[in-house]
Amino acid sequence: MKCRKISQIVLLVTGITMIGYGAVRGEAAVVLGKAIKLCLECVGIG
User: Fold this and answer.
1) Structural domain containing residue 23
2) pLDDT tens, position by position, 1-46
3) Rounded Cα–Cα distance for residues 16 and 19 (Å)
4) Which residues are within 8 A (CB) of 22 and not within 5 positions of it... i.e. 6 or more apart?
């Protein structure tokens, strides 16, 4: 049970760190731009 709790905490910290690193690099803007293009293509505008 203790090993499972530790692994959950490690994975949580790793995930938060990766999300923070991606935000610092500006990846959120890239993902948002791709999402907008995809939505416009689905509607038939882009």
Assistant:
1) 2-43
2) 899 999 999 999 999 999 999 999 999 999 999 998 888 888 887 5
3) 5
4) 28
The CA angle 13-16-22, to the nearest 5 degrees, is 140
**CA distances, 1 to each of 4, 6, 11, 33 (Å):** 5, 9, 16, 43
Which pair of structure tokens corresponds to residue 5? 């709790």
CA 34/CA 37 separation, integer angstroms = 5
Task: Give the 3-state DSSP-derived string for the chain, with helices as H, strands as E and coil as C.
Answer: CHHHHHHHHHHHHHHHHHHHHHHHHCHHHHHHHHHHHHHHHHHCCC
Q: How many domains are contained in the chain?
A: 1
